[in-house]
Write a structure and sequence with these properties.
Shape: elongated
Helix content: 10-25%
Strand order of the largest sheet: 1-2
Number of strands: 6
CATH architecture of the domain at 22-84: 2-Layer Sandwich
Order of helices and strands: EEEHEEHE
CATH topology of the domain at 22-84: Alpha-Beta Plaits
Largest sheet: 2 strands, antiparallel
């Protein structure tokens, strides 16, 4: 099957890359991806909410709703640790 392909405003082909995974071990909890995500895909959990967490980390990022990802890849472009994995949607 062919990948789903959209067109940019200029008419150039663009293949959305949808989030499939987040490497929580590499994540530093900076929240950059959370701030740029236009949908409700990510969840930023403050370590103060969970007393069992290691206090060295200020926050922890988790995937909340992969089904809401629109494939813009903004999260990966701002991530300083390259924590995200992506996959194109097969049509």
């Amino acid at each position: 099957m062919a990948d789903y392909t959209a067109l940019t405003r200029a008419g150039n082909p663009w293949i959305p890359q949808f989030v499939t995974a987040l490497d929580e071990e590499k994540c530093i909890g900076c929240g950059r991806c959370y701030k740029v995500c236009p949908r409700d895909v990510l969840n930023l959990i403050d370590s103060d909410e969970d007393d069992d967490e290691d206090e060295s980390a200020a926050a922890k990022m988790t995937l909340k709703d992969l089904g809401d990802c629109i494939g813009c890849s903004a999260c990966g472009r701002v991530c300083p640790k390259n924590c995200f994995s992506y996959e194109a949607l097969a049509a």
